[in-house]
Design a protein that fits this description.
Layout: H1 11-27, E1 33-35, E2 40-42, H2 49-60, E3 62-69, H3 73-82, E4 86-95, H4 97-109, E5 117-120, H5 127-139, H6 147-150, E6 157-163, E7 169-177, E8 188-196, H7 205-221, E9 225-230, H8 235-243, E10 247-257, H9 259-262
Parallel strand pairs: 8-9
Antiparallel strand pairs: 1-2, 3-10, 4-9, 4-10, 5-6, 6-7, 7-8
Helix pairs in contact: 4-7
Bound molecules: coenzyme A (COA).
Length: 269
Amino acid sequence: MKFDDEYFGDPERIALAKRSASLWKLLKEDSRFAFQGRIVVLSEPSDDMVEIMVDLAKLQGGSVCNYFPEQDAERTMSELEDRGLRVVEHVHLRGDQTCLDASHAALATYALPEDISVIAIDETTSSELVGEVAEMSESCGVMPAPGWVMRGNGPAGIFLVAKNALGEPVACAGSFMCHPKGSSRATDAFWGMLATRPDRRGQRIAFLLGAKAIIHMWDAHNARGFITGVSAQNPSSMALCKKIGLSETGWCYISCIDETLFASASITK
Ligand SMILES: CC(C)(COP(=O)(O)OP(=O)(O)OC[C@H]1O[C@@H](n2cnc3c(N)ncnc32)[C@H](O)[C@@H]1OP(=O)(O)O)[C@@H](O)C(=O)NCCC(=O)NCCS
């Protein structure tokens, strides 16, 4: 794997992220699983999901199940808690053509501030910039993906960065095909990892980066659905997601954390 030295966080976090990378290498053809750029997750619920989520959390520090019916969440969450895990529910948002239409409308209506330039991180991006993006993302409470994911060497996708006139990263957004090709969800892409440096918030930078990412995924990778998980207590992200064509689905993301491995970390906000 190229760029396999670009992992971020403290040594414990890095060790877990490396395990997630190895796990994904083993499981990437298995339609039970998906990869959200940082950890391997359950693609969708199954009868044995509690056991699998416990194992995933023990290996990686955390795990998520996508497309979980909200009405059944309480029981499954308490089963996971009984197994000693901290459990968090995120609102599961999804959009399809709605996202493409909203993204085109956004780019036709708004422009980025004049000092901002946008790049997609790839093999030619300096390690220094990748490290700065990870730091900026982390400082906004969003766990950064490793370099090989941001650079597009893993799942097909895109990771966009807005830089100011000094070349500093001030915002980022990413989207990746997260399910194996054989999955019934194969054309749904994970979209998110949005972060904007506090002094540049409210300038529609994340919105426009997110819109560009959606259009790219639709055109270049045949993405026809976009999914993300957001905390119900994150109104800014929720408002942005809705503005970009995602809506609530009746599903939730069930996340569980093994606190002996993952201390106070959370994957998203
Ligand atoms: C969420 C976040 C990325 C938004 O970044 P941003 O660049 O300030 O967002 P934008 O200026 O592009 O906002 C676009 C739209 O989102 C909504 N929005 C953004 N911030 C908002 C806020 N504080 N309150 C309400 N709505 C908000 C608005 O609808 C806004 O459009 P409008 O200005 O036309 O009304 C930023 O607040 C952030 O980094 N938060 C911490 C990390 C995080 O929560 N990431 C998301 C993980 S799921």
